[in-house]
Amino acid sequence: MMLKVGIIGATGYAGEELIKILLHHPQVKIALLQAVVKEDILIQDFFKGLQGKINLLCTNLNLEQVILETDLIFLALPHKASMEIAHLLLKHKKKVIDLSADFRLKDTSIYEEWYQTKHTCPQLVRETVYGLPELYRNFIKKATLIANPGCYHTSIILGLAPLIKHQKIDLNNIIIDSKSGVTGAGRTPTHTTHFPNCSENFFAYKMFNHRHTPEIEQELSFLAFKEVNITFIPHLLPINRGILSSIYVDLKDSLNQDQLLAIYHDFYQDEPFVRLLKDTSPQIKDVIYTNFCDLSVFVNNKKALIVSCLDNLIKGASGQAVQNMNIMFDFEEKLALW
Amino acid sequence: MMLKVGIIGATGYAGEELIKILLHHPQVKIALLQAVVKEDILIQDFFKGLQGKINLLCTNLNLEQVILETDLIFLALPHKASMEIAHLLLKHKKKVIDLSADFRLKDTSIYEEWYQTKHTCPQLVRETVYGLPELYRNFIKKATLIANPGCYHTSIILGLAPLIKHQKIDLNNIIIDSKSGVTGAGRTPTHTTHFPNCSENFFAYKMFNHRHTPEIEQELSFLAFKEVNITFIPHLLPINRGILSSIYVDLKDSLNQDQLLAIYHDFYQDEPFVRLLKDTSPQIKDVIYTNFCDLSVFVNNKKALIVSCLDNLIKGASGQAVQNMNIMFDFEEKLALW
Amino acid sequence: MMLKVGIIGATGYAGEELIKILLHHPQVKIALLQAVVKEDILIQDFFKGLQGKINLLCTNLNLEQVILETDLIFLALPHKASMEIAHLLLKHKKKVIDLSADFRLKDTSIYEEWYQTKHTCPQLVRETVYGLPELYRNFIKKATLIANPGCYHTSIILGLAPLIKHQKIDLNNIIIDSKSGVTGAGRTPTHTTHFPNCSENFFAYKMFNHRHTPEIEQELSFLAFKEVNITFIPHLLPINRGILSSIYVDLKDSLNQDQLLAIYHDFYQDEPFVRLLKDTSPQIKDVIYTNFCDLSVFVNNKKALIVSCLDNLIKGASGQAVQNMNIMFDFEEKLALW
Amino acid sequence: MMLKVGIIGATGYAGEELIKILLHHPQVKIALLQAVVKEDILIQDFFKGLQGKINLLCTNLNLEQVILETDLIFLALPHKASMEIAHLLLKHKKKVIDLSADFRLKDTSIYEEWYQTKHTCPQLVRETVYGLPELYRNFIKKATLIANPGCYHTSIILGLAPLIKHQKIDLNNIIIDSKSGVTGAGRTPTHTTHFPNCSENFFAYKMFNHRHTPEIEQELSFLAFKEVNITFIPHLLPINRGILSSIYVDLKDSLNQDQLLAIYHDFYQDEPFVRLLKDTSPQIKDVIYTNFCDLSVFVNNKKALIVSCLDNLIKGASGQAVQNMNIMFDFEEKLALW
Q1: Residue of chain B whose Cα is closest to the Cα of C234
Q2: N or C end of chain D: which has fewer CB within 10 A?
Q3: Residue A159 and residue A73: Cα distance in Å, rounded?
Q4: Pairing mode, if any, of strands D303-310 and D243-250?
Q5: Which of residues 237-296 of B touch A (CB under 8 A)?
């Protein structure tokens, strides 16, 4: 019996990647594709790269149809658009994996401040599971609503979790210099993402002011059992895909590289999608088109550098969403992701 | 006495380049910058790269002010927007260099067909000089209205002119495979020019259907004294600037590379901005940020390949416009362009 | 029973892609990796992207071991290096897929002229099958030695085959303007492939003088049953992967786009890896990381343009090699390639 | 009277930029070009972009000729190669601007440790002036030997100087995350700088281990009048030119952005080549091909971020060298650099 899956928001980058991944999933049938479109369109005409691999209409939003024809729904919608839809789908006993930020922040007042909108289903937030398998696998198994983490978040939280969990670092001096490819900004053309503005260029943006900051701090604080504040500065790389975060921390005690790596090894040894590298930086070219997060650590006196690297559209979005689905439905966790 | 120059359309790529070039011109004062803007903006705040080099307000279109304060006006507006403005400025005895296509086609019915708009000043077209100095320098000297050629056109016409002029090639089998950087598509973001759609990508566009075709054919026909039809296919390169045209022709008589080069050498020997290369392809990196058009020729039996290469924003637009200005006002032709 | 496969030349780009593809093949076991290396190296240390996916030593060339441990060998060696090795392996009843040019030219005197080396096994050339499944599937099934076509070749031959086979075009005026990504030049750093020489650059190379020309002409001549001479000019694109060929031909009779497409549709309708697009250019982004060759055709009077596009490392090398293996060993043709 | 200038190391990137800049200098004559070359070569054949702009032979190293024909020599040689040459030229009363690291470190034992070579003229180091005009203009005026700072150094020292000079920051927690374009690695092709290894890629390198660290610490310590230790991690950007350094510091006292900017404004108000931006990150595209260093500052509580951006080949190498020359010879400081 194949799981009937719907993708709402199929015409964005995350939707495209979900289709590409799920097409290779032996236990899933893509039952339905929807998006905010003026008229129905064959998805393989919209994404020409899908020619010959799928033949399916992407229709305008129609939740009744979603309820009738699918069991699990991926919401790949812009922030703010998922709240009501998730609510309705859950009422009809569907399972939902939401790739937006709408259910990620446990404190909805913080959500409302950063996203400048009222949160209409705060009660749902409580039962939402944060879809980071490396931290919450057991909760994901039983979840009905997954808040799938974003790309910066995954790279940073996976980079810091072992050291914070084991209380190895000063929580008051965490500096995160992140660099993202341009697909991280979505499919809508803007002056910022115009080719001549990116190519042969590089710059920081939203200095001390990126709305992903509170979500990252929330997750790190859960790990620390106390409040964590970070310095997080994103930059835009002239590449299509991939994120690399350079994370600077102060060690409480002197630890050499081997000792640090041992902590990471213990923490991630059973994880299929976290790889540790020694003596070399992770490289974006080695993780793009994969669900891997590559990590390496370096030490100088009591300063440590963690370099964390992943594909923003896979481990940072759609691949992780499928990993969550595999866990929820008791499929082999690597299915369609290997 | 400095020439007082106005730039209308100062917020586009051609406008930006005009400013950068004219800032270095010892006999020109940028008197005025205008564009279609909602509110006045300091041009150095709009183009941050101009910080410290200029301090000038770019205001909304105001032709009265243009008439009062300038002697020469560069129109760097989208196609169709220049007609009326040029007309008015000429009536007030101004000189105009128009970077759009509005006055390039001598047969306005062809213009009207390809640009889907009525031409409102056909009488002006007759007195317009096509601003390609290598062909029309003597006319440019006395011109009041210059139709500044586009980027594809310049690379192609300069590549073919010597062979057509000297009747060395079959006029029925000219194949032009052109490749342009993304600034050629202008500053307005579109799906086509969205970074992730260009980077690591390449494709043809407007196959047999690019509206620059009739303009190129017009100029080649003038050179040939008979009708020339070309096959012209543009492609989009994942680079910011530069055009390279690979032009395939059939020689009427056997000529070796040296003989061909001699024809080009004779034709261009006094031209400051045309360079001939031997035994090697021109490269875009060698012409960007310059007003040069680099050419090389290769032969195999009676097939010849001409490779022509220039910076679409300089020799293909603003640099050539300044070169035309230098000629019109009897300045040293290389001023500000060297 | 798994097929035991060896890859000789495992440290090049084609070797890397072969490993990545074969890792997903359910009926193949990568039994052995060899290359010209000074000391044995774990392949996942050499290509970090393979970490966690394979654990296998790449050793120096050792044909005795190859003979003992494998049934099928992929030779991903530089031109000239395969001849003797293939010869020896075949004597030991192995099957060989050679990705070099060593066995592609039926007339070894042409090989010797272009590759400046003596061909040491001309007798083997006769029994070699040119590994282009769309043309030679039935021969590939029974082959013991496959000469796997190169990247330019595949894009061009697939683009022209239907029209030449059906005698629709003038064979004396075929102009091929090809553009390749930089991996086409191999893994060895050179001045040409140095990042600052490619990025924001573009140029033609080996004008009328590329050694792939005779191989393409050979295959087109077989299709035409008469000698075909082409004009073939390659260019270097500032991208990692992908080839796009713009092919200009003269139609013998007037055909519109639909009629042309119908010819292509008939020719390729059962082909899993050839896709036809209508009214739009193929794009490199839609074929990279796939085994597809995308084609489209355009007409203007009796000039036709065929645009052909593929991933130089997949359909242009390793993917096609695996496709050939699937055919030789009666596996499902799309296995590991879909 | 024109200053007769020689460039030794003319075939590298810094040499190429020196030529391009000096060609526009009204008071300088490029008298001589030398490099380690097997045979003499016309420099415009070596760098095709110089065709039509210069006609000069680049010959093999020949110091006698240098002594006879030049007054000022730019040494654009690899590290370690300049020591003896500078020594000899100074003995002959020449003035020297050395772009290598050979004379930058005042403590030659540190030089010897990081560059793994004996320093042969430690006595010269003492009289060398560090060629950063913003800090040492008065010394540069009288210098005979300039140690021209490197690219990372300039971006970092200019970014930190005002805050260190005014004792506004904690000297024990300075974190510098720098990103450089590929020309920073020089003209020699390597696996690291091979196009397919850079494009669509990004990574850190020499983690806690870059040999520019001690030089930066030296200069910051001079400013602080006490020892400063930094965390400096360079990364490789997939672009040709440009460096952006993101510098994280702890403010001793609370300062808002305006107060911080005021400090920078005071410090740099008379500097022609330092630009301050407000509320926006500097962008590499705005500084390439210029001698500007663009700076901006941001604050959050007592954490400050300084973003510093320049062209590694101009303000980070050859432009700064010419700026130093202008100061030494009492030319207008902006000559040829504006």
Answers
A1: B246
A2: N
A3: 29
A4: antiparallel
A5: 238-240
- Is the torsion defined by CA of D204, D210, D213, D216 positive or negative? negative
| Distance in angstroms (rounded) separating the CA atoms of residues D139 and D124 | 15
d(CA D305, CA C118): 64
Q: What is the pLDDT of residues A252-283, one digit of tens each?
A: 999 999 999 999 999 999 999 999 999 999 99
- Is C151 a catalytic site residue? yes
Q: Are B240 and B183 in contact (CB under 8 A)?
A: yes
Distance CA A298, CA A281 (A): 9
Quote the pLDDT of residue C299.
97
Q: Given this model, what pLDDT does residue B79 score?
A: 86
pLDDT recorded at residue A1? 81
Tell if the CB–CB gap between B200 and C235 is shorter than 8 Å: no
- What was the pLDDT predicted at B213? 94
Going by pLDDT thresholds of 50, 70 and 90, the confidence category of residue B32 is: very high
Query: A204 to chain D: which residues are within 8 Å by CB?
Result: 244, 246, 281, 305, 307
Q: What are the catalytic residues of B?
A: 151
* Positive/negative CA dihedral, D187, D190, D192, D197: positive
Partner-chain contact C248 B298, CB within 8 Å: no
* Shortest CA gap D238–chain C (Å): 8
Interface of A with B in 56-75 (CB under 8 A): none
Mean pLDDT value across residues B166-179: 97
Q: Is the pLDDT of residue B303 over 90?
A: yes
Strand partners, C177: C233, C246
* Dist. CA A189–CA B106, nearest whole Å: 36
Best residue in D202, D209, D245 for a mutation probing chain A (most A CBs within 10 Å): D202
Q: Are B92 and B67 in contact (CB under 8 A)?
A: yes
> pLDDT, tens digit, for every residue of D292-304?
999 999 999 999 9
Using CB atoms, which residue from C51, C277, C280 is nearest to A275?
Answer: C51
Tokens 């045979």, residue located: D39
With contacts defined as CB-CB under 8 Å, which chain B residues touch D292? 52
Beta strand pairing call for A203-204 and A230-236: antiparallel
pLDDT at B139: 98
| Res. C196: pLDDT tops 90 | yes
Residue pairs spanning B and C at CB distance below 8 A? 125
Q: Where are the alpha helices (DSSP H) in A116-212?
A: 122-127, 133-142, 151-165, 195-198
A208 with D241: Cβ contact below 8 A: no
CA distance A80 to chain B (A): 24
D253-D257-D258 Cα angle (round to 5): 105
Which of D51, D200, D286 is facing B49, going by the closest CB pair?
D286
Average pLDDT over residues B29-50: 97
Q: Which pLDDT score, from 0 to 100, does residue B1 have? A: 81
What pLDDT score does C79 carry? 86
- Nearest CB among D191, D193, D196 relative to C182 is that of D196
pLDDT value at residue D53: 96
Angle at D160 between CA D154 and CA D164, to 5 degrees: 135
Mean pLDDT throughout B242-253?
98
- Please report the pLDDT score of residue D168 as a whole number: 97
Alpha carbon distance A171, A122 (integer Å): 29
What angle in degrees, to the nearest 10, is found between the helix axes of B151-165 and B133-142? 100
Beta-carbon contacts below 8 Å between C and D:
60
| Per-residue tokens: A150 | 């974003």
Q: Give chain A's mean pLDDT.
A: 96
Cα separation of D263 and D253, whole Å? 13
> Which residues are within 8 A (CB) of C128 and not within 5 positions of it... i.e. 6 or more apart?
C98, C103, C104, C143, C145, C146, C147
Write the pLDDT tens digit of every residue in A147-167: 999 999 999 999 999 999 999
Contact A49 C287 (CB under 8 A): yes
